[in-house]
Amino acid sequence: MIMLNFILFFLSITSSFSNEIQNTSWININNSIYELRIYSDNYFAITKYNLETKEFISTKGGVYSMEDGYYEVLEFNSIDSSAVGDTLYYSNVKIELKNDSGKMKIDGKKFTKNSDEDQLSGSWLMSGIERRGEMRMRDVNRPRKTMKILAGNMFQWIAYDISKKGFYGTGGGTYTAEDGKYVENIEFFSRDSNTVGKSLEFNFELKDGDWHHKGFSSKGDPKYEIWTQRKQ
Q1: Which of 77, 192, 210, 218 counts the highest number of beta carbons within 10 A?
Q2: What's the pTM?
Q3: CATH: 2.40.128.490, 3.40.50.720, 2.60.40.2250, 3.60.110.10. Which one for 122-229?
Q4: Which pLDDT tens digit goes with each residue over 76-129?
């Protein structure tokens, strides 16, 4: 992997990469360490965690592109905040897809594609949250964001601030969305490892393109959130 502003390099692709990678998730497992990659709309997150010990290790992500090769621009990094804003170019990427299965090799590391889950797939920003019975709306264009990305049966939320290069927390795992019921099965949580293994069920509906999400948090507190699909 090379970190530069401009570079010419060879990219090996065996599928329609620019279309097929969108809204997918991939996993690499090595000695109980999971490395999860979620590609949702134009955004991505890479997270490492140990499911056996419930240890959260790290996460980073931001914007990805396949124009003139494959590269990533970091918006958050839990380990190294100084890397926020960096562009990461990958010179060795290979994708193989067949039906709903697939393999990806990036910088010598092999990933397998997770099953597809179309409901709610995409990148979402929290635009409203209920406090003391009152819905408080948020400007989704501000640098301080809570983003949730869903693809390939996996979800992850991340709280961060681009302008301050701040990382404030993350959690994720598998999800299902069917008949108005949205269920999260938590596999990693940076703030409280005791949350790992819990399943949270919410009622959801889409209103004018926004995702309304109502239920209870991992602490048992009532939760009503509105999420807006990210456009920039």
Answers
A1: 77
A2: 0.87
A3: 2.40.128.490
A4: 999 999 999 999 998 778 888 776 678 989 888 999 999 877 789 999 999 999
Q: Partners of 205 in the beta sheet?
A: 212
71-77/43-50 β-pairing:
unpaired
Q: Which two tokens stand for residue 231?
A: 């456009």
Residue extents of the structural domains in the chain: 17-113, 122-229
Instruction: Convert the pLDDT of each residue in 136-155 to its tens digit.
Output: 999 999 999 999 999 999 99
Residue 30: burial class (beta carbons within 10 Å; 0-12, 13-18, 19+) = exposed
Q: Where do runs of H (alpha helix) occur along the chain?
A: 17-20
- Distant-in-sequence contacts of 27-35, Cβ < 8 A, 24+ apart: 27/111, 27/112, 27/114, 28/109, 28/110, 28/111, 28/112, 33/57, 34/187, 34/188, 35/109, 35/111
